[in-house]
């Protein structure tokens, strides 16, 4: 896992392709790809587990996810034209797009953050003639004071301790690097787990997944205070879709999504993705998956991405797959409820807006042994805050599923002073009654 998420050397495309299939036409699509393009396809349905890495789909082969209407194919260069032709000629095949690598969104450089604060304060002093360090914006840039002896600042800011709901009866899927299954704060919990990474089990060899699981569903009474988890009575579904380096592919995410949907998870949390450029369209494949999830009563919550560098005037669009219109996109704010310097913004028309913001800086949660706890920064931390609170809303109202759950979250948000392109409708808030 990179210590700085804005590294420019990340390879973005795997060389494989995603194909969007027509509604309820997976069998016909599979036949066309076999007959016209010579692809050998494996069909995966329901809760079937499929481990996928960079080499597990051989050349000339592919996988069809029937419930999602998606195929992933590995076509050698001399076969691409035939695949394109098959897509163009068959009504059962809608479009083809390149598969992306995806990675975690967390662990931002705190030294850089301090430099950002100092740069903004210096700019204010220069423009206003204020004495250096003498107040003004520098004072406003200081954090709101929270007493974290019992409760994390993120739980306090989102009013989780005031809620009477616990997530009981709700299933939350966290698709990430897995979970430290030996962590004392998860002892006795209902946990269903599955690895989608070839050669690696669910046990978290990275830490990012354990951190995200802790925020969404961590214990009410952890081994060490403060409490950091939200929906502590929810059933946790852990899908390892990123390897122990924090890297994965679209195919692995799709496999994890189909698995979570087959288990009727009301909330699915994604703290992962890949950067997009200004003007770049969202993935039609992931948009179809998200729309089917909403229709099924499941809400996909995703991190907006850490690709921005606001201290230097660089603000990037919401990343993939959070930029899909039917995926709930979450930005990160700091303790002062200001937009985090790395958090992406809703810049691309037709997709990629921010829906809500959540705590995403200096966020304490669970971590694999021997550390057990760690504070991280990133939109990766904001997304599971939102996912846990979504579970509370799901418990609070039997009708709060899919699109109606989305509406509940938006209606109860706390307005913030920042632009909606940065924080959407505001700061997510837990249901009180």
UniProtKB/TrEMBL annotation:
It holds the Pfam family Peptidase_S8. Keywords: Hydrolase, Protease, Serine protease. Residues 167-422 form the Peptidase S8/S53 domain. The active site is at residues 176, 208, 380. The keyword Isomerase does not apply. The keyword tRNA processing does not apply. SUPFAM superfamilies: Subtilisin-like (SSF52743). Gene3D superfamilies: Peptidase S8/S53 domain. InterPro entries: Peptidase_S8/S53_dom, Peptidase_S8/S53_dom_sf, Peptidase_S8_Asp-AS, Peptidase_S8_His-AS, Peptidase_S8_Ser-AS, Peptidase_S8_subtilisin-like, Peptidase_S8_subtilisin-rel. Belongs to the peptidase S8 family. This is S8 family serine peptidase. It comes from Methylobacterium marchantiae.
């Amino acid at each position: 896992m990179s210590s700085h998420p804005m590294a420019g050397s990340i390879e973005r495309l795997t060389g494989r392709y995603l194909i969007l299939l027509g509604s309820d036409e997976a069998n016909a699509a599979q036949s066309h790809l076999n007959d016209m393009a010579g692809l050998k396809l494996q069909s995966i349905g329901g809760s079937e587990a499929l481990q996928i890495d960079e080499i597990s789909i051989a050349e000339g082969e592919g996988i069809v996810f029937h419930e999602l209407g998606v195929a992933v194919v590995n076509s050698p260069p001399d076969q691409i034209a035939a695949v394109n032709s098959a897509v163009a000629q068959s009504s059962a095949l809608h479009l083809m797009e390149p598969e992306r690598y995806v990675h975690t969104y967390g662990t931002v450089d705190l030294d850089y953050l301090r430099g950002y604060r100092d740069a903004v304060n210096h700019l204010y002093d220069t423009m206003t003639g204020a004495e250096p360090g003498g107040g003004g914006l520098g004072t406003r840039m200081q954090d709101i004071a929270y007493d974290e002896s019992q409760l994390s600042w993120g739980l306090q800011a989102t009013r989780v301790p005031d809620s009477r709901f616990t997530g009981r009866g709700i299933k939350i899927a966290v698709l990430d690097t897995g979970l430290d299954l030996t962590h004392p704060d998860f002892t006795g919990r209902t946990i269903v787990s599955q690895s989608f990474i070839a050669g690696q089990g669910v046990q978290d060899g990275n830490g990012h997944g354990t951190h995200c699981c802790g925020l969404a569903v961590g214990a009410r009474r952890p081994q060490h205070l403060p409490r950091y988890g939200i929906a502590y009575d929810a059933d946790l579904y852990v899908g390892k879709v990123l390897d122990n380096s924090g890297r994965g592919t679209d195919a692995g995410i799709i496999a994890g999504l189909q698995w979570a949907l087959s288990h009727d998870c009301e909330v699915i949390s994604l703290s992962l993705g890949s950067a997009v450029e200004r003007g770049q369209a969202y993935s039609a494949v992931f948009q179809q998956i998200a729309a089917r999830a909403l229709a099924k009563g499941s809400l996909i919550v995703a991190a907006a991405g850490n690709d921005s560098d606001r201290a230097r005037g660089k603000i990037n669009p919401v990343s993939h797959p959070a930029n899909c219109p039917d995926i709930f996109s979450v930005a990160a704010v700091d303790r002062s409820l200001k937009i985090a310097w790395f958090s992406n913004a809703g810049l691309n028309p037709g997709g990629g807006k921010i829906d809500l913001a959540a705590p995403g800086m200096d966020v304490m949660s669970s971590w694999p042994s021997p550390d057990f706890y760690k504070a991280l920064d990133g939109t990766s931390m904001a997304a599971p805050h939102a996912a846990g609170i979504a579970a509370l809303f799901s418990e609070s109202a039997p009708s709060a599923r899919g699109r109606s759950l989305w509406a509940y979250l938006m209606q109860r948000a706390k307005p913030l002073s920042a632009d909606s392109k940065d924080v959407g409708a505001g700061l997510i808030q837990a249901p009180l009654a």
